[in-house]
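queue> pop job 88
queue> type: inverse folding (structure -> sequence)
queue> payload:
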């Protein structure tokens, strides 16, 4: 494999898709940063797919740089997850790592509305801070759905989860 070749760890097996993803839990003033891609009807935590041969913390740093044009600090593992779910008729088997991160104070914060927009891999990304204490995570349809409750009280040490979403 050449140095410039990028191989994302996602592939299809029949009607199923395997995906290895990394995500950032960026919290500020009781809000979590979420991302909406293009006109999707859901949001997700910032992050993306891990590349072949790439350790997950390196993948997270790359994704933060690509998507937020920023650097993360105080990166700490919170969850490793085996996630099984269905999207648009396709069954997913996803391995994911979720890291708590701090963004620089210069990264914009407002309690409502889009704080940052960018293009990444041909998609328009819009980022906003969402209050974790109320129903706002439901309002923005944060996926995976199980993360909504988990964000309200992060564990003191890393946890391994096996999650099955039913359609």
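queue> result:
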């Amino acid at each position: 494999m050449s140095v410039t070749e990028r191989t994302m760890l996602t592939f299809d097996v029949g009607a199923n898709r395997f995906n290895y993803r990394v995500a950032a839990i960026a919290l500020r003033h009781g809000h979590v940063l979420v991302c909406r891609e293009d006109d999707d009807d859901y949001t997700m935590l910032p992050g993306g797919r891990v590349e072949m041969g790439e350790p997950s913390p390196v993948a997270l740093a790359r994704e933060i740089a690509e998507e937020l044009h920023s650097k993360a600090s105080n990166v700490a593992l919170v969850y490793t997850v085996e996630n099984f779910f269905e999207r648009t008729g396709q069954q997913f088997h996803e391995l994911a790592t979720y890291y708590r991160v701090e963004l620089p104070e210069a990264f914009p914060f407002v309690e409502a509305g889009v704080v940052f927009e960018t293009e990444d891999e041909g998609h328009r990304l819009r980022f906003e801070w969402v209050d974790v204490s109320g129903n706002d995570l439901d309002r923005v349809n944060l996926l995976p759905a199980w993360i909504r409750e988990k964000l309200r009280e992060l564990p003191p040490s890393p946890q391994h989860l096996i999650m099955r979403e039913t359609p």
